[in-house]
Structure formats: structure tokens, C-alpha cells
Amino acid sequence: MKKLLVITMAALLVGAFTVPAMAVDHEFGGFWRTRMYNMTDFSGDDSGSMDLQQADTRTRLYYTAVLSDEVKLVNKFEMDATFGDGVRGDIGSDGQNFEIKQSYADFNLGEINVKLGTQGKCWARGFLFCDDFTGAIVRYVGNDMIIPFIWIKAYEGGMGEDANDYDFDYYGIDPSFTMGDIKLNPFFMYAKSEDASAWSATNSNEAVDVYFLGLSVDYAAEMFSAWFTGIYEGGTVTATDDATVWGDNAGEDLDVAASLVAAGGSFNLDALSIHAQAFYATGDDDTEDTDLNDYYVPKGRSYYWAEIMGYGLIDNSVSAGSPGDQVSNIMAFNVGVDVPLDKLTLTVDIWNASLVEDDANGDSDLGTEIDVLAAYQLLDDLKLQVVAAYLSAGDATGGGDENPTEVGAQFSLSF
């Protein structure tokens, strides 16, 4: 009898642990890349201070536990290494450069979808936000519309009296409506903190009360597509009392009035496609007054454009003087062509960019850049990309005495 009881209990315990496990579906995926590159004269002068020749690698692993049709837990992990560094790329390769990129619960409550935890979000093509964050996205999903409400916890003030004043939050709504070939995406984001001085990303501001109001439009037909994004930034910030940062404006209330517009399109033919885009983001025309006119998001915006001036395939650094993916105080124009040839796609782009407001030396021309990218499908899951870029530097690119160049190659696979 005692032996039978022991066997019964053991069976119940095994069942208790295995039945829930059998009810969970496990989904795995990932991405891997290894690249080699040479960047020369990115400083725009003959100092060689930004020259770099190296190889690096990145692995991303995705694991999703699907508990039911309505609930899942999403996790994304990342491991980076530079060949030969002491983090993970040296002999022994036993470093600990391991990141948890995302970990969030994704569940449905009727027509409401909730993503809660550390996740990713692209907003206004990245001109407003495109990064991982910790917070929540609550979406209503309809037939031809999606209405997400977004909360991003940008900075936590911690424990202590009045510590909550240091919190910095983004709140917003990002709906999209599909009407035939047209997609409309009006959006609104509100950035708020009682005292943002503890967060270095705020440019030494205290009270921040800033909003972003914008619209994106996409049109797609068989041979032609076009897009547009416009953003207006308004509100107020209070400068800290630090005179070395703000000068005569220390402690003053500053009025924010800035804007960004961007547009692009492509025309698809059988043998090739032609694409073009342009964007304009305001800068601050007078740092002595109490008006802030430079388009500015404290942290999170990221829009890749030219290979050298705006990141690209080899997104290690950008040329001197350029805002890179943090688009502000710049206007840029692009035209390019894509030529598909069986397993090979060849892309050629020309970019011209300049600052809207002159830099400290009175210069504005960043230069004209030519990018050539070849992508070849070596195997069904393995791709090789080779890039070559040259920037005819303007005076605003580190003085413009030297012309930055970049060559690189990248192997990548995803599953």
C-alpha cells in the first residue's frame, strides 16, 4: 500500500510538471551578422582621429513562449563582439557581453492587444522614436484601423523625497487608418518631467513640458509609391541655473517651436527602380534668445540615411559635423537606383546635405556622398553585402580638408 502511494504521488508530480509544459508552444528565431570594414578620414581633417579598421559580429536569439492564442511571452537576446577585443572577441572568447534586448508579455483582451515590458517601437519612421524601451503599448485593432496608446518610461527618479520629480515619461497615440492604396497615420507624443536635470539626455533642462504633433501618409500602387512625414514640436522647458550651460538664459523658461518635414517615393520598372527622398529639420538660429528652435527629442529617435553621414550598413560612426541618425538642424536630398540581377541587387545612392543653421565656425555644407551597395544571396539563408561610400566633404565636415571613405562587407543570416 505504501509503495502504491509513493508511485501514485510520483505520477501526480510528473503530471503536474509536464502537462503545463506540453501546453506551451515554443518559437525560436534569430539573426547573425559578421562584418569587416575600413573607415578613413571621417574626422574631415588629416588627424586620422576617427580612422578605424576592424571586424565585428552580432548574434540575436529570439524565444517566444506561446501559452495560448491570447497570451505569449516574447524575449530577444543579443551578443556583440569586436574581433580581438577583451569583451568576447579575444582568445578564449569567454567574455560576458550579453544583452536582454526585449522581454515583454503580449496578450489580447477581446479587440485590445497589450504589450507590457521591454519592447521595441518605431514611430514616425524613426524621426520621432525608433528604439527599445520599457513601458506599455495598448492597441485597439480593427478591420482598417489600429489605434495604439503608448507609455515609455524614459527615466526613473528612484527613491527619496521628491525623487519622483526626476521621472521622465513619454505618452502618446499612434493610430493608422487604411483606405485603399493610402495609409494615414496622425500621431501625438507628449514628453513630461517635473525636473529632468538628473537625466543627461535632456541637455540640462529642469521642467520639461513638450509635445510632438504630426502626420505620416503612405501611398502604394503597382509601379509607384510615395510617403510623407511632418512633425511640429512645441511646449516649454525650464533651463537649469547652471550659467556655464545656459549663460544669460540660466533659470529661464524657454519656448519650444521646431519642425521636421520629410518626403520620398519610388518608381518601379521591370529592370530597375528609382527612389528619392528629402528631409528638413529646423535648427536653433539664436542660442542667446529664449526660443528653442532646434528639432530635438531627448532620446530614442533614429533615422538611418546616407552610409557615411547618416549611418547605414556599417553603422559604427558618422562623419564629423553630421547629426547622424539624430536628425536635427539639417536638410538632405537623395536620389538612387536599385537594379535587381537574379541573386544580386545593386543599389547606387547620391546624397547632398547641409546644416540649416551654421555651425560655430560659420559653415553649413556637409558635402555630397556617393554610396554603392551590392547584396548577393549566397545561399537561401545566407546573404553577402558589400558597400563602398565616398563623401566629398563640405566645410562643415570637420573643416572639409579630407574626404571620408568607407568600404565594408557583411555576411548575415536570419531564421
What can be said about this structure in brief?
With 415 residues, this protein is mainly beta.
Main beta-sheet annotation: 20 strands, mixed
Can you count the beta strands? Answer: 20
Residue share in β-strands: over 45%
User: What is the tally of helical segments?
Assistant: 2
Note the run of SSEs as H and E. HEEEEEEEEEEEEHEEEEEEEE
Average pLDDT score: 92
> Which shape, going by the Cα principal axes?
globular
CATH architecture: Beta Barrel
Radius of gyration: 25 Å
Q: State the helicity in percent bands.
A: under 10%
Distance between the termini: 53 Å
Number of domains: 1
How would you describe what is shown here?
With 415 residues, this protein is mainly β. It has one domain (31-51, 88-414): Porin, CATH 2.40.160.100. It is 6% helix and 55% strand. It has helices spanning 2-22, 243-246; strands spanning 25-40, 52-66, 71-82, 98-109, 112-123, 129-141, 145-155, 168-173, 176-179, 182-193, 205-220, 224-239, 253-268, 273-281, 291-292, 330-341, 344-354, 365-377, 382-393, 405-414. It has a 20-stranded mixed β-sheet that branches. It is globular, with a radius of gyration of 25 Å. It starts with a helix and ends with a strand. Mean pLDDT is 92; it is low at 1-9 and 11-17.
